[in-house]
Design a protein that fits this description.
The chain is α/β, with parallel strands linked by helices and 525 residues long. The protein is built from 18 helices and 26 strands. The strands form six sheets. Strands 1, 2, 3, 4, 13, 14 and 15 form a seven-stranded mixed sheet that branches. It has a six-stranded mixed sheet with strand order 6-7-9-10-12-11, with helices on one face. A five-stranded mixed sheet has the order 20-17-24-19-25, sandwiched between helices.
Length: 525
């Protein structure tokens, strides 16, 4: 283990005469595919045939299959494992239609060795995850979940794994973000334990069994991955997901691959099937990590999709074509819905969605719209807008929810939305009918500087005691992404409005051609 890197020179000298035999492990890895079964464009949305023909598309499960097969052939006779760090579920019409059955089939065919549980694997409750577990031929792992109270999942997810690779035991430990009950739907019987404490216990248990090479396969995000690499003794590497962080040694602005936290390499492979990670770990014969290197492989047009997998994708796509191909509107310019934009400040897609919600229910006395930035999943390019593109932006089948709440509750909701900006959390509040200023230097819970609402055609300070009509999506209204105040303090709630994707598509059609814009409704001080 890495702790043994601290061995003294004298101790090393004692073994200098012994025969040394290095062991090299190649870890191929993916994460956060989010049902991008088909190839994607530069906006991380489904790529169309014309763009594919131009060679401007990336990823898709057929490219993942082809590159994995190519790497296995290239590394024939060497030690290779294929891991996924979670969030295969949710994000395209494929998931909406097939609920993971397609994903299980493709992952089985590619030959994954293990997968971490991601928060979105719980989007349709433990039952959907249980169906997936029954369909895959490889184990899922998550060490900080107490499933003893779940009659659906108990005994079906591993706490740790040991893979036999080239005559050596490779230990896999895992953790899932503890805020998953706020970001998904695991239900009350899936109990979350502290990530670091769970990993420490699991590493100690594997070490006691004589496992000397241990990899953490996590779904907690890059910030927490770095903290875990530092806090958990005995880890040899962290292969993560959740934050969709770009790692590269050649792309500007990316995190270094691997990022070293002391002696522990930390890696991830962005998201949406765009990259295949390739981490190379070299150990001495005592299990000490000597070297960590590698680079994510961009799955661009130079990677020819696996023809058999591509044919199966095309077959599964046929029932979806009529829905996706329908042109619903026109965009005068790109509508930015990128993760970096919509989880950190005002973004064009957030404005569009919030305005669409407000427009739909304004005749009901609703004056404020709030949309969580994490519910915005892609951008839309300029030109004709298809229903398929809208569904890629808003894949969750959320419905409009209306309710009433005091101004003080609105301010508390905005504080919640701003509380985890540093982590790129999905709770960031995109708004309409309200504008606010916030201070990122202040601690969480004290970041809202001012809030104004539109009244009689003019902006006025929000009144903490006044009751306002509010629209959001049913996920947020019921306490998702930390918006518990809406569930506990909201009044006269109605959660069964139209689908948010339909509302957005219809709004685009009514106002089109739609010109995206930022107007300063969210100001960072």
């Amino acid at each position: 283990m890495n702790a043994r890197l601290l061995a003294s020179a004298a101790a090393l000298a004692l073994t200098a005469g012994a025969a040394q035999a290095d062991y090299t492990l190649h870890i191929l890895h993916t994460n956060d595919l989010h049902s991008r079964i088909e190839s994607i464009n530069k906006y991380d949305s489904t790529c169309d045939a014309e763009t594919e023909a131009k060679g401007e598309c990336f990823g898709g499960i057929a490219r993942v299959a082809a590159k994995v097969a190519e790497m296995r052939k290239e590394l024939d006779g060497q030690n290779v494992i294929l891991l996924d760090a979670g969030d295969q579920f949710q994000g395209s019409l494929f998931y909406t239609t097939y609920k993971g059955k397609d994903t299980a089939e493709f992952m089985n065919a590619i030959g994954y060795d293990a997968m971490a549980v991601g928060n979105h694997e719980f989007d349709d409750g433990p039952e959907a995850l249980a169906e997936f577990l029954g369909a895959v031929s490889f184990p899922l792992v998550s060490g900080n979940l107490d499933l003893s109270q779940s009659n659906v999942l108990n005994g079906k997810i591993n706490g740790t794994l040991v893979l036999e690779v080239g005559g050596e035991k490779i230990g896999i430990v895992s953790a899932l973000a503890v805020d998953t009950p706020e970001t998904s739907s695991p239900g009350p019987n899936v109990i979350f334990q502290d990530e670091a404490e769970a990993l420490k216990a699991d590493v100690e248990a594997l070490t006691a069994e004589g496992v000397t090479k241990i990899v953490a396969l996590t779904h907690v995000g890059f910030v927490k991955d770095k903290a875990l690499a530092e806090a958990v003794p005995g880890l040899d590497a962290v292969v993560g997901g959740h934050s969709h962080t770009l790692f590269s040694n050649t792309e500007e602005g990316a995190e270094k691959y691997p990022t070293m936290v002391g002696p522990v390499p930390v890696v991830s492979a962005y998201a949406y099937s765009k990259y295949l990670g390739h981490l190379v770990l070299t150990f001495d014969d005592a299990g000490n990590l000597k070297e960590a290197s590698g680079e994510p492989i961009l799955l661009d047009a130079s990677v020819k999709p696996d023809p058999e997998v591509l044919a199966k994708v095309a077959e599964l796509a046929k029932p979806l074509e009529e829905i996706r191909a329908k042109v619903v509107a026109e965009a005068a310019a790109e509508i930015d819905g990128s993760r970096d934009s919509c989880r950190a400040g005002e973004c064009a897609m957030g404005n569009l969605i919030a305005e669409a919600m407000l427009e739909r229910v304004k005749d009901q006395g609703v004056t404020i719209a709030i949309q969580n930035g994490g519910g915005v999943r892609a951008s839309i390019d300029a030109g004709p807008v298809t229903m398929g593109e809208v569904l890629t932006v808003l894949p969750f089948q959320n419905t409009l929810s209306t309710f009433e709440a005091k101004g003080s509750t609105v301010v508390a909701a905005l504080e919640n939305g701003l509380s985890q900006v540093e982590d790129g959390a999905g709770r960031f509040p995109q708004v309409a009918g309200v504008k606010y200023t916030w201070d990122s230097a202040k601690p969480a819970g004290e970041r809202v500087v001012s809030v104004e609402v539109m009244e009689n055609g003019a902006w006025a300070p929000i009144d903490p005691e006044k009751v306002y009509g509010i629209v959001t999506n049913n996920y947020v209204r019921n306490g998702g992404d930390g918006y518990k105040m809406f569930a506990s303090e909201g009044m006269n709630a109605y959660d069964f409005g139209p689908d948010l994707a339909d509302v957005t598509a219809e709004y685009l059609a009514e106002v089109g051609p739609y010109t995206p814009a930022l107007d300063g409704r969210i100001t960072k001080q």
